[in-house]
Amino acid sequence: MAANSDSPNFQTSLFNKFKNHRKDSQTFILLGVFVVLFVFFGLINHNFIAAPSIISMAFQLPEIGILSLAMLLPTIVGGIDLSVNSVANLAAVVSGIFLVKILPVNLLNPALSVVLAIGLALLIGVICGMLNGFLVAYVGVPPILATLATYTTFLGIATGITGGASVTGFPDQMGSIGSGTIFGIPITFVIFALLAILIYFILFRTTFGFKIRMLGSNPTAAKFSGLKNNLILMKLYIIGGVLSSIAGVVAMSYTMSANYEYGTTTYVLLAILITVLSNITPGFGNVFNIFVSVLILQIISTGSHMALMGVQGSSFFKDFLWGILMILIFILNYFMHRKEIQN
Amino acid sequence: MVEEILRVENIKKRFGGAVALDNINLSIHQKEICCLVGENGSGKSTLIKLISGVYAPDEGDIYINGHLYKKLTPIESIHEGIQVIYQDFSLFPNLSVAENVAINDQLASGKQLINWKQINRIAAEGLARINISLPLDALVSTLSTAERQLVAIVKALLANAKLIVMDEPTTALTQKEVDSLFKLINDLKDQGISTLFVSHKLNEVSAISDRTIIFRNGHKIVDQNAKELNIKKMEFYMTGHEIDNSVVQFNKIEKDSKPLLKIENLSLAGVFSGINFELKVGEVLGITGLLGSGRTELGLALFGELPVDSGKIYINDKEIFIKSIAEAVRAGIGFVPEDRIREGLFLDHSIIDNTIVDIIDRLKDKLNFIDYKKKTITGEQWIKKLEIKTPSGELPVKSLSGGNQQRVVLAKWLATNPKILILNNPTVGVDVGSKAEIHELIRSLAKQGLGIMVISDDIPELIRTCHRVLLMQGGKIVEEFTYDNISEERLNSELVRANIIDDNPRRSDE
Amino acid sequence: MIKKLINTSEFVVLLTLIGLYVIVGLINPVFFSISTIFDTLRASTVYFFLAFGLLPIIISGGVDISFVAVAAVSSYAAQMFLVSRGYDGGIWAYFIISCAIGILMGLLIWFLVTRFNLPIFSVSLALFTMWYGFALFFIGAQNNFQLPASGVGYYEKNLMTVKLPTGGITSLHSSIIYVVLAGLFIWWFLKYTTIGRGVYAIGGSREVAVRSGFNVKLILLTIFVIMGILAAIAGVFFGLLNRYFGPMDLQGDPLNVIAAVILGGASITGGKGTVFGTVLGVILIQLINRALIFLGIPAQWQVLVVGFMLIIFISMPAIRERRANKLGHSTAMTELE
C-alpha cells in the first residue's frame, strides 16, 4: 500500500536494462529460429524452398496470422479472447448464407454481391466484438470466462443457422481473393501483412494505442489518470472482432465454403500459442514478433509434412514440433533471463 | 541483568557498488520497545532483512540470544524467536483466521495431516493471549486491516517470538486502533517480548519508544533513550540538517475574490453529508480527520470516483456534474493518490510516458499520429521543471525513489494544466528531505494560481502547506481552522478530542 | 451458520440445478424419471475424473489444458500396447499402464513449470499441442475398437437396474463407485492434508506461501501427479464406456471441464474451490445438455442455449462483485489487498 521504496536505485535500474533487453531479444530469437528452420527443412527436401512451396505456405498462413493479430489486442491489456475463431466462422457463415441464399442471384453484379457479403461479415465482427467488450468492460467478467461464454454462443448461432452443414456455392469472385495473387504474392498474405502493419501503427503510433498499452500496464492507474478504460476496452474488442471476421472471410474465400466450426479450438490455441511465443505481456507487445511466429509455425507445418511425405500421420507431426519448439524457446528464455541478472 | 536478545557488531552490507549499511553496532534487550527511524534508503529495511536471515552481511557478526551467526538463515532466525511482520502481514486472505494463526505450527511440526480440532484450539489459545476475540472460521479477507494485524501478531506470538519486528505498522489504522496497538505492544513488553518498531511517523515514535535508533545513509547516528529526544531533534538527525519549520511564506489570497470551487450540500449516503465549502484561486485548503471521517471519500467524490447522491459543485460559478473520473479531469481537476504504486504510476513504462499520459492527445503530428519528438521534449521539460532526479527519461518509473516517483505523479497532473489539484496524503513513504521540497512545491503551485486541496492526517504537513484546514468527523465538517488560528498543538488536540467523540470509525463491510 | 452456507457459490449452483430439474420436469414430465439421473451420471463419469484432477490445479491459481491430452494419450497408448501384446486379461491392466503414463506426463509438466519458472498455462498449451501431435503421429490416428474380453461387457456393468413405468429399463453404472471414491479422495486431500491446504495457500498468495515455509515444489508435484492419474483413469473409462479408444475425441473438451469447475464455484484466479461444487458443476452442464433434448430443442440449437446460459452464469458473480465494491468502497482505499 504505502510505497516503501527502500531498494537501491542501481538494483532496479539493472533489472530494467534487462527487461528492455528481453523485449528485443525475443525478436532476435524468433528470427534466428526462423532462419535455422528454413534452412533445415530446405536441406531435407529441396522442394521446400522452391517457389510453389513458398507460395503455398503464403496461401495457408494468413488465416492463423490474422487470428493471431485479433488475439494480440486483448493479450496486451492482460486478457485473452477465446472467441476469435468462432467469430470468424460466424461471420463467414452469415455472410455466406446471405450471399448464396438471400441476395438475388441474377439481379446483382456478382462482384458487388461478394463485396456486400464481406461487408456483412465485418459487421458481424463488430457486433461480436461489442458483446465481448460489453461483458469484459461493463459487466466486469474476467476475459477468459467472458470469451469462453461468447465462444460457445457464437458457435451456437453458427451451428443453429447452418444446421451443421457447410455453406457452399459461392460465385467465383469470392475465390478470387483467396486464390488470387498480386505480383505472384497471394492476396491474402498481402492482406495479413498490411493488417499487421496497421495494428503496429494503431498500437505504437496512435494515441489510442498508447492508451491501450498504458491500460494494459496498470488498469487502476489508467482509471485514476482519467483514461476512459471501458471505452478503450470496448473499441479494442471491436477491432478484434473485425480482425476475426476478416480471418473468416479469408478462410471462406480460400476454401470456397463456410463452416460453423472450421478450425475448432485448434485455431484458438494456435493463436494463443503465437502470442505466447511472441512474448506479449500486459502493456508491452511486438507486432513483428507475431508476424515471425506465424511464419515459423507455417514452415514447421509445411516443412515437416514435406519431410515426412508418405509417412502415415505426417500431417500431425507439425503439432508435435510446435509443442516442442515452444518448450525449447521457454527454456532458452529462462537461461537468457538468468544470464542477464547475473551480469 | 536484562538479557540481550539481539546484537549486531560491525555490520557492513553492500549492493553492487553502493554501501547500504556501514559499521552498524546495536543491540536489543528483553522487555524493550525500540524504534528504528530513518529516511528511505537509510538502511532500515536492509537491517531487518539481515536480522531475519533474508540477506547475509558482507562483514560483521550477528548474535541472537548469545549465539553467533556468521550466515544466518530465515529458519534459524525464526527459531531464535525473531518474527518480522511485513506490510501484507503474511496472511492468506482466502483462509480462515484459525488456519492462518496455526499454519506455522503445522508446517514446523512436519505433520502431513490436519487435525482441525487442534488447529482451532491453538488459534483460540493464541487469540486469548492478547485478549481479543475474532470468529475462528472467518476468512481473513473479510477482516479489517487492524484485525489482520492482530492475527499477524498472534501468529508471531505462537512462534515463540522474543522480538517482534513491525514494519510501518500504523499505515492503515485509525487513531483508536493505533492506541490499541500501542497498548498491546506494552502488554507484550510486560510478558517479556520486545518490539522493534520501524516507522517514519515521529509523533508515534515519541509516544511508544523506550529507545530510539536513527539511521542515516547506512550509518547509525543515534541510539539513545527516547526521553532524551524530541521530534525536532529526530528530524535533524534523520536528515542532517534542520528542517526550517518556522519560516513558511504563504501567498496572500484576495479576501473578496470569487471562489474557484464552491461546494454546496454535498452528500453521499453513509459516507458524508451536508458538505459546504469554498476554495479560492491560489488557496491551499487542508482536509483532515480520522480515518473513516469521510475525508478521503470527499476527495474521491470531487474526483468522480465516488459520484455523490446530492449537492452541487461549482467551478468558477458554473455548475459541474462529475460522474466519472474522466469528467473530473475534463473539468480541470487533478488527483494525486495516496497509493501511487497502484493508482498513480505505470511502473514498467518510462518516466516520460508516465508524465505525458494525460496529455498524449496534444502530442500529435500533422498525420494525427504520436509525435515522438514532441513527446520526448515535453516529457523532459516536466522532468526538469519538477526536478526529478534521473539519468534518463526513458528509464522505467520503478527505477526512481519514492520522492521522485511522487514528483512524476505531480508532473502528470500539472501537465494537464488543472484548475484544482487534490492531493491525498502526498508525502507518505517519502523521505523527510523530499517531503519539505514537495511542500514547497505545493505552496508555489498555489502562488501560480491553482486551487489546492490537501487531504492528510499529517499535522505538520497541514500546518506547512495550508491556508485553511477543515476538520471532518463522522461525515460532516465540524470545524474550520484559518491561518490565524492554526497551531500544531491546537490542531492536534482537536483531532484527539474528535477521537473521543467519534465512537464508530467507518470500516469496510465485506 | 445457515446464512454463511447460503452465501456460497456452491449453494447457488445447487439451487440452479434443482431449479433446472424442476422447470424442465414441469414442461416434460418424463424428465423427472430416474433414468435422467442415471443417464446424466453415466455421461458425467469421464468428466468427473477430469474435473477432480483439474480442481487442485485451479485452486492453486493455475489453468491447465493439457489434462485432456494426458487422458487421451495415456489411455490410447495403454490400449495400443495391450492390443499389440494380445492382452486378454482383466481391465485393471489398462488402469495400471495408463496411470503410469499419466504420472510421467504429469511429472513432465511439473518439471518444466518448476525448473524453468514458467506459467502453468503456457506450458500446458505447449504440451497439449505436443501430445496431440505425438499421439496422432507416433501411436496412430485410428480409433481402436478392440477390447479384451473383460472390457467388452464393461459398459453394461451396472450397479442397479430399475424398471421404468413406461417400459424399458434404466441402470446406474458401476463406475459411479469409482467416481465417488475419487471424489472422496480429493475432498480428503484438500481438507485434511497439509499439502492440500498448501494448494489453497499457493492460490491465495504464492509469495506468502513461500515465506511461510510451504514446499511449493512438492505441492505442485502432488497436484500434477494427481492430475496425471485421474486424467489417465478418465481416459480408460472413456474407452470402456464408449467401447473404443481414440486419440481425438477427448482432446476437444478442456474448456468444458474448466467451465464445469468454475461454475462449481472455483475462482479462476485461485484460492477457492470445493469438490462438492465441482460435482455440481459437472452435473449441471450434463443436465443442461440432457434438458435441451427433453425440451425438444433441436440439436442444432442446443449449443446456443448453453452459450446463453454460460453468459448469464458468468455475469452473475461479476455483477454481484461490482455491487459489493460500490458499497464497500469507502474504505477500499485503505485496505491492504
Q: What is the helix/strand order of chain A?
A: HHHHHHEEHHHHHHH
Please mark out the parts of chain A with pLDDT under 50 across 5 or more consecutive residues, or reply none.
Answer: 1-22
Main sheet properties of chain B: 6 strands, mixed
Q: Which structural class best describes the helix and strand composition of chain B?
A: alpha/beta
Order of strands, main sheet of chain B, comes to 6-7-8-3-9-10
| Number of helical segments with 4 or more residues of chain A | 13
Can you describe what's shown?
The complex is a heterotrimer of chains A (about 350), B (about 500) and C (about 325). By secondary structure, chain A is mostly helical. Chain A is built from 13 helices and 2 strands; from the N terminus they run ααααααββααααααα. Chain A is globular, with a radius of gyration of 21 Å. Chain B has helices at about 45-50, 75-80, 95-110, 115-130, 145-160, 175-190, 200-210, 230-240, 295-300, 325-330, 340-345, 350-355, 370-385, 400-415, 430-445, 460-465, 490-500; strands spanning about 5-15, 20-30, 35, 60-65, 65-70, 80-85, 165, 195-200, 210-215, 220-225, 260-270, 270-280, 285-290, 310-315, 320, 335, 420-425, 450-455, 470-475, 475-480. In chain B, the strands form 4 sheets. In chain B, strands 6-7-8-3-9-10 form a 6-stranded mixed sheet, with helices on both faces. Chain B has a 6-stranded mixed sheet with strand order 16-17-18-13-19-20, with helices on both faces. A 4-stranded antiparallel sheet of chain B has the order 2-1-4-5, with helices on one face. The two termini of chain C are about 25 Å apart. In chain C, helix 3 (about 35-60) runs parallel beside helix 8 (about 175-190), helix 4 runs parallel beside helix 6 (about 120-140) and helix 8 packs across helix 9 (about 195-205). The model of chain C is unreliable at about 330-335 (pLDDT under 50). Chain C has one domain: Orthogonal Bundle (ABC transporter involved in vitamin B12 uptake, BtuC), CATH 1.10.3470. Chains in contact: A-B, A-C, B-C. At the A-C interface, helix 5, helix 11 and helix 13 of A face helix 6, helix 12 and helix 14 of C.
Briefly say what this structure is:
The complex is a heterotrimer of chains A (343), B (510) and C (337). Chain A is an all-alpha fold.
